[in-house]
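TICKET: design request
STATUS: open
ATTACHED STRUCTURE:
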């Protein structure tokens, strides 16, 4: 039902409840993990008739996927076409097995997500994301754009020189990348006399990092990008476990929900569904997944839902920018915050080239926050800050102005930090290191 997002809320709910019934029957017949869960918790799936009834079913957690990975597979192994792993943000990576049908679903998901973000069949999209290293997203983007009929250039991540050579040769009008990388390719263009503002690129579809505040205004990273390069910016949110994308439309008011692909809940620390608009942990139930479907899986991401109808005409709910990860909560000097609040300050500080936020715990159980920064070449000459102590004082003042507290600062070699941020086996930049475990 391609237009389900535009139907009234009541119709969307009825539609999802029918999909849920099918999903539960599939799990009962094919999933060793959920067969056991239903049996041990005396769950009669015939009694799960509404979305609200889902609350009678226990959550599935990341640890379940790590410990009982094989039990989630619902098809014979020979039916698996593609093996994928998560990035390991919350621990050891988890393997996901995808069938041919799952890859078709993935293509459909990205096709409608790109369409939501205004990408058309006549567009040429340069993918600045990896398609190898067992990464779902890069493959999903290619499949979705192919299904949409758009042109695709698979450049991969990093290497600003190759990115600009490709842009100048093939002239894509859209790029897809992590938003902070936009600043890197802008810097390369400025250093090499490339007129990037008049290039063929007019739009960026972004992944992996927030571009907006909770009120949907651009955050400091988004503002900095727009000041440098006035191009259209679209945020998306997704994960391997969801195999579904939430993409912004042209109005930039949250990621649109695809009701035919996923059921979503937001719960508090006690596992109780929160009121509309309140922040909690996103819990998902996948629909139409054949290989390894999930039921009430806790994503670890803190979000809120927006249910008012969007100006684009879609009635399905929208997901807010991610507030943070549930297990990344910091309690520092009497203040509670999440790492993205720290990133916002660092991304908007002109003399910082790169950074890593490192968190540990002292003997009294208190969080310690150390921010390791690499300086841009010529930072001291470009600013009236003559010494390292001047830089540290200025940065701490910026933190206090934005988040009321100032973490410890350590100035490091930017090249050394780059190796820490982009290790050989990682598919995503590592900006947060949690040593509290």
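STATUS: resolved
RESOLUTION: sequence designed for all positions
ATTACHED SEQUENCE:
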């Amino acid at each position: 039902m391609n237009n389900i997002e535009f139907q009234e809320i009541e119709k969307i709910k009825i539609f999802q409840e029918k999909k849920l019934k099918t999903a539960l029957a599939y799990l009962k017949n094919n999933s060793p993990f959920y067969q056991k869960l239903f049996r041990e918790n005396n769950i009669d799936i015939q009694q799960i008739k509404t979305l609200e009834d889902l609350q009678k079913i226990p959550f599935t957690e990341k640890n379940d996927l790590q410990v009982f990975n094989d039990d989630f597979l619902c098809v014979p192994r020979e039916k698996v076409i593609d093996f994928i792993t998560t990035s390991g943000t919350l621990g050891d990576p988890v393997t996901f097995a995808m069938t041919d049908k799952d890859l078709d679903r993935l293509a459909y998901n990205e096709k409608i997500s790109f369409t939501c973000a205004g990408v058309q069949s006549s567009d040429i999209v340069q993918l600045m994301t990896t398609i190898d290293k067992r990464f779902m997203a890069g493959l999903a983007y290619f499949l979705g754009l192919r299904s949409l009929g758009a042109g695709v250039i698979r450049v991969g991540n990093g290497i600003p020189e190759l990115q600009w050579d490709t842009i100048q040769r093939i002239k894509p009008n859209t790029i897809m990348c992590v938003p902070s990388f936009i600043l890197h390719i802008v810097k390369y263009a400025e250093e090499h006399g490339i007129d990037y503002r008049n290039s063929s690129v007019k739009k960026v579809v972004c992944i992996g990092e927030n571009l907006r505040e909770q009120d949907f205004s651009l955050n400091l990273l988004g503002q900095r990008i727009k000041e440098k390069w006035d191009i259209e910016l679209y945020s998306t949110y997704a994960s391997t476990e969801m195999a579904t994308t939430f993409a912004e439309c042209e109005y930039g008011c949250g990621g649109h929900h695809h009701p035919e692909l996923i059921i979503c809940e937001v719960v508090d620390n006690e596992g109780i569904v929160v009121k509309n608009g309140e922040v909690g942990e996103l819990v998902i139930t996948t629909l139409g997944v054949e290989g390894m479907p999930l039921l009430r899986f806790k994503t670890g991401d803190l979000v809120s839902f927006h249910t008012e109808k969007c100006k684009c005409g879609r009635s399905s709910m929208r997901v807010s920018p991610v507030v943070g990860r549930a297990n990344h909560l910091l309690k520092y000097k009497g203040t509670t915050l999440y790492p993205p609040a720290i990133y916002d300050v660092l991304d908007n500080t002109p003399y910082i080239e790169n950074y890593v936020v490192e968190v540990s715990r002292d003997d009294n159980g208190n969080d310690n926050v150390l921010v390791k920064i690499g300086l841009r070449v010529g930072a001291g000459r470009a600013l009236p800050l003559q010494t390292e102590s001047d830089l540290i004082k200025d940065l701490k003042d910026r933190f206090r102005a934005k988040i009321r507290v100032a973490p410890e600062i350590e100035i490091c070699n930017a090249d050394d930090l780059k190796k820490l941020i982009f290790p050989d086996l990682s598919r995503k930049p590592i900006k947060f290191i949690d040593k509290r475990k």
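CLOSING REMARK: The chain has two domains: 1-325, 329-434. The longest helix spans residues 9-30.
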